[in-house]
Specification:
By secondary structure, the protein is mainly α. The protein has one domain. It has 2 helices and no strands. It is elongated and about 50 Å long. The chain starts with 6 loop residues before the first helix and ends in a 14-residue tail after the last helix.
């Protein structure tokens, strides 16, 4: 039988998922600072552009799950019906 997860646990999972994304973005930005090849610069910028929304979404969902039941917590319109 599977145990149900609480929203706090789900939020913590999103926080954990954000860690490697944040680390990778930091690494890519460092590489971009020293890159000289135009193709490499393009590749790095493209990867940063792909990962940034993922990190933003992880952070937003973690915040939503962690604070969902708090009175007066503003919920982003993207996550309401």
């Amino acid at each position: 039988m599977h145990e149900r997860m609480t929203l706090a646990q789900i939020g913590a999972g999103y926080r954990e998922a954000a860690v490697p994304l944040r680390r990778r973005l930091r690494q890519l930005r460092q590489e971009l600072k020293t890159a000289e090849d135009p193709e490499e610069i393009f590749r790095l910028k493209r990867r940063i552009a792909e990962l940034t929304p993922m990190l933003t979404e992880c952070n937003a969902l973690a915040r939503l799950c962690e604070h969902y039941y708090e009175r007066g917590y503003y919920r982003d319109e993207r996550y309401t019906l």
